[in-house]
Amino acid sequence: MDVSSFFPIWSKLTAFEQQTLKNSAFIKKIPAGTVIHDGSADCMGLLLVRAGQLRAFILSGEGKEITIYRLFERDVCLFSASCIMRSIQFDITISAEKDTEAWLIPIDVYKRLMESSAVIANYTSEVMGTRFTDVMWLMEQVMWKSFDKRLASFLLEESVIENTETLRITHEQIAAHMGTAREVVTRMLKYFQTEGMVKITRGCIEITDRNRLEALSE
To answer: What is the mean pLDDT of residues 188-201?
Structure first.
């Protein structure tokens, strides 16, 4: 499949715009663990995820991470092209959680198209609006939802992403996703285990009572 299959508004573009994108887009392979955008320092272009998984997170002054959102197949990574939006500056880091392949549209090409095409400009604004919604949702969770509920939601979400009840994830990784200390995660997981909701082994968390986790997360 070429880039046309991964660009959501392809059918609304002119023939010239479609050909421009086809001629410029190329596949970029991103090994797991690679940082592809770090604050406002990098601006490689627009990424259309073909396969794999990306993670967008922010880093506090104390070095704590918190995941804002994750991107999967057919998602669009706009912040890798953040320099086209000069009035908006975000210190967001994007890294590959898994080996990833993505169509990369170079920044100069996408910028020219966005300036000349109302369709592409509107689409870019819609994607940005969606990301703002993600950030606001996260703020609400952190400010108003207790940590046990947030952790239950995270475990359930991770189970859906990985399609398994057995999660191969460390307490340190969970802490990085949730913006807290590893010790806080460990204490809460031990509580979940005493309540029969999970079973903890080295590098692995097994969901043993999904219904109770769902009830807690709500």
So the answer is: 94
Contact between 56 and 99 under an 8 Å Cβ cutoff? The reply is no
pTM score, whole prediction: 0.80
The single-letter code of the amino acid at 114 is M
φ/ψ of residue 56, rounded to 5: -110, 130
The C-alpha atoms of residue 212 and residue 198 are separated, in whole angstroms, by 10
68-85: average pLDDT: 85
CA–CA separation, 149 and 116 (whole Å): 46
CATH pick for 145-217 out of 1.10.3210.10, 3.20.20.70, 1.10.10.10, 1.10.510.10: 1.10.10.10
The residue length of the chain stands at: 218
Overall average pLDDT of the 119-146 stretch: 86
- Taking the C-alpha atoms of residue 198 and residue 209, their distance in angstroms, rounded to an integer, is 7
The gap between the terminal CA atoms of the chain, to the nearest Å, is 40
Tokens 């573009």 -> residue = 13
